[in-house]
Amino acid sequence: MTNPIITLDHVAFDYGRKPVLRDVDLTVQPGEIIGLVGPNGAGKTTLLNLIQGILPDAAGITIFGGQPGNPTAKAATGSMLQGNLKLPRVRVSELISLIGAQYPHALPTNEVLTLTNLTAQANQSINTLSGGQLRRVTFACAIVHQPQLLFLDEPTVGMDAQARQEFWALIERMRTRHVTVIITSHYLEEIQHVADRIAILTQGRFAYLGSWDELQDAHNGGQISFTAPLAPTAFAHLPGVSAVTATTDHITLTSTDTDLTVQSLVPFFSDLHHFTVTRQSLETIYLDLLKEDDQNEEISQPAKV
Amino acid sequence: MKKFLNQLKFDGKRLFLRNPQYLFFVLAMPIGFYILFTKVMTMGSASEMVTFARSYMGSMIVYSIVIGALFSLAALMQHDRQVGLVQTLRLTPNGTKYYYASLLTLMGLLNALSALAIMLVAVIVNHVALSVGTGLGVLIIAVLGSIPLMTLGVLYSRIQSVELLNVLSNLTSFPLAIISGLWWPLSLLPNWVQAIGKVTPTYLTNHLLTRFLAGNALPTRDMMGIAGWAVGMLILLFALTAWQNMTKVVIHRGSTQETPSVQ
């Protein structure tokens, strides 16, 4: 097994009295794509800042075999910050060229412009770009030196659907080059498709860390929808069914175990039409996990009198 | 060296060549004031006006430095910090050393350029007699005298609010110009204001320039005063940076999500 690129060992961090991270463990192997998700204020950006050495006191963190911010890590890491490098009176190609000049093996600026589909904007002032174009410029600055490790903090904010699709295609290219990527995003569907592992950070620790398949297996819920000449109440007591909703033409069963519910529907199959099964998305599982976590937190903290 | 020159070229374009505001406020305005007070609103005898045209040149050079430091430099560095340029550079193997070296060099060059432009106007418009040696001496005094003001500009750039920086720059530069006698003679002001004005870095630099242009010896007190201000400002800057690091609040990286930031 190869050496991990990043190791977090019982990492904790607070801003004065406000705890942000509590006992976080993580090992990232070369070439992995990790999707880091969590509600606002969960500590995602703080965690990325600690790993990159932006915040001090990063005890328990090893990156490229050393402390955060070590020279090897700096040379091999690219970072797409959450904000955009919106600099007035600077052209796109000038900024990419400036960032590239900080590294020993940077790609030629023209190549980076082509790769990020910014050739037409090369001589345009950064201040005049759209939100999506600005994101691409920030991404271009992160990959200009062909990093082995890439941090992407909310990379697709402000991008339209096509730009997002193109962006994720670029990330897939990074995967083929064995680049390790850590992404935070509020677009959970995108994370679900691109990440090898998903880390759900809430209340300063991981509520889940593993693959999407494992997560989905552990949450076998979903919705079963069909049309039938039967009363909706006929399905209410089937195994796994937690709710039944009916419209004029459809009956929808919400199930905590779709496999079990589908098996129990077999005797009705001759009467069922337009049958579909939709498993829980990352978003619904994520929201369930957050709800569970909030409830656990309330139980663990005695009510103030 | 190539990396430094790259950064210098980058900064030179955005701070000077493509920045009409800089040209107007730091170059055109002091030159305008100089012409207005020495050519249009003339007072006193011809010989007094010749002396005034020579000494007022120094005042406008110092005024130009104040505007460049407290408005242009402070605002540029504040914006760089807020959009994440400083953080992006900090994450690279070179860090921010070329960034700071480039801005300090560029401001030194631009201050020298402003001084040169004002001297040329003085020579052409008011026929002030200046030798090459005197001109070079003025440039050296102007650049050295600008160090405390540049440091103050860097210090101000660590303020997070754009509005607060603007207010503070205005509240510093214009009263400073008045109490240090850059706009009109210090003798017109009350004694207690004069006493304060005479210890300001702007007065000390202006006084040095005036003495030098009049062919007098340079007062050690003025030079020590400027050095003292420069050291004091640098200590303040390092203390503020250390405090921000210690309290773990310098996390602004173009992000508005993490709130505890005071830089």
TrEMBL record, chain A:
Residues 6-228 form the ABC transporter domain. SUPFAM superfamilies: P-loop containing nucleoside triphosphate hydrolases. This is Multidrug ABC superfamily ATP binding cassette transporter, ABC protein. SMART domains: AAA. InterPro entries: AAA+_ATPase (IPR003593), ABC_transporter-like_ATP-bd (IPR003439), ABC_transporter-like_CS (IPR017871), ABC_transporter_ATP-binding (IPR050763), P-loop_NTPase (IPR027417). Keywords: ATP-binding, Nucleotide-binding, Transport. GO terms for molecular function: ATP binding; ATP hydrolysis activity. It comes from Schleiferilactobacillus perolens DSM 12744.
